[in-house]
Amino acid sequence: MRARRYAPWWVVLSDILLINASMLLAYWVRYELQWFRDISYYHPVSVYARFGLLFTVLMLLAFQVDRVYQQWRGCSWLDQVYRIINATAKSVVVMLAITFALQPLQYSRLLLGEAGIIAIILLALSRAVQNGVEGWLRARGIGVDRVIIVGAGEVGRTVMRTIVARPELGYQIVGFVDDNPDKGSTDIGRFKALGPLRNLSRLIEEEVVDEVIITLPWMYHRKIMSIVRECERRQVSARIVPDLFQLSLSHVDVDDLGGVPLIGVREVGFGRGALLIKRGMDVVGAVIGLTLGAPLLALIALAIRLDSPGPIVFRQTRVGREGRHFEMYKFRSMREGAEEELERLRELSESDGPIFKMRDDPRMTRVGRFLRRTSLDELPQLWNVLRGEMSLVGPRPPLPVEVSRYMEWHKRRLEVRPGMTGLWQVSGRSLLSFDDMVLLDIYYIENWSLWLDFKILLRTVPKVLFGKGAY
Known about the structure:
The chain has 16 helices and 10 strands. The chain is α/β, with parallel strands linked by helices and 471 residues long. A 4-stranded parallel β-sheet has the order 2-1-3-4, with helices on both faces.
């Protein structure tokens, strides 16, 4: 179990080989191809062998400092590339300092810089391949940990939405148990309710469970310890998520005072400063999008006009931040009168929640079907972003009728401005269940950062291009 949280040995070995390969390629580029600057002198490759060894040692040390191999599980490709760039920059700077100090005129410093750039490219590509292989294996149940969650309260739901938001962690949740009959008998999205705690021993055997995650309040200390002992008897890993007096885990700030742990409460997600920065990004992004996308917007408007009668832009009342209503704009993708036909089609909805989703909606026009598939019908929402009613990234704005059917915990997604794209759109789009969508939205709210927004925007591009899960 613990070994799965560290990088496998073959990853470390491939890194060593690729780091040395980058030095050889840099030598070929510098002396054979002579890119960037011609040279009249020549050094044999053996002269740089010591630098290849030094570069490898420095990179491995930087990876050790940044805990790259120790925090392998759950680290996204973008985060991995960031660490690779950071480690390479440190290593190249140290090598350049050594050449200046010891042999100021003998070695090509440009070669060392080229080796760093090549190493970043090779290691980034290898991480993409490694992540792809791991993802393919995990999709087939290989290399995943089968988990049961004990407790379906707020802490348990935090664990659930984290696992939904981060499939790269490699957890497959069998389901959850809870003695509360209202919680232990109702599924939450993809997560199955498996009944009360007394079923846990039987479920561990029947479901071949690898790990039990306990999310019970600390007032149930004796029950928690009995679960831990039961897991020990059955040789199953038991992990406890402290509820910290019912605080959400993302509200907790852990520090130390000379080795003494300090636990505090920090502002989560969207503080005043964060809102100003996010708003600035939204305004800049909307202005650039509307300016550069003007020809495309005009072309789409012409296609809609020629395809079917009716307005070019469709307006619809949606619910925004803190329940405020606003008019959302989209390119019209359906024939006139489509709203009046909704009730007749509602029983054909392919969604399991209050939202209406239908893969082959008969109300869509020819152009509208293409716009939906490519998400180009969303472009007019840049005007909503500019007006401050929406954001580039955030939960999707629901209809008032959908909000009226929300459960109480669903309403947390209304705490922030809705967005044109969001975490669930890049995690499965319409293929997800409604509860999974809400879990992802709440995860986004509790874990917001500029880096998270940037990653979501980057992941949106291939989702739009390939149209997977969009209808």
